[in-house]
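Field log, afternoon session.

UNIT: design team B
ACTIVITY: writing a sequence onto a fixed backbone
BACKBONE:
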């Protein structure tokens, strides 16, 4: 197993969630549904990535 034990996934997930939040808000302000949808996709990707990181952490603890 890798030494990071899911840390990379959690960090990347957090970054994707932040990027998604920014796109979502920008899409709201500019009234652009495509940008808003892209933001929601990035937030979902970030949440999934963070979950993978947490799972890796739990598996490495065993």
């Amino acid at each position: 197993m890798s030494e990071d034990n899911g840390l990379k996934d959690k960090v990347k997930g957090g970054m994707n969630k932040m990027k998604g939040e920014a796109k979502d808000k920008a899409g709201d302000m500019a009234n652009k549904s495509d940008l808003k949808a892209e933001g929601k996709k990035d937030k979902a990707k970030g949440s999934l990535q963070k979950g993978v990181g947490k799972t890796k952490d739990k598996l490495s603890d065993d």
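LOG NOTE: DSSP finds two helices and no strands in the chain.
NEXT ACTIVITY: expression trials, pending approval
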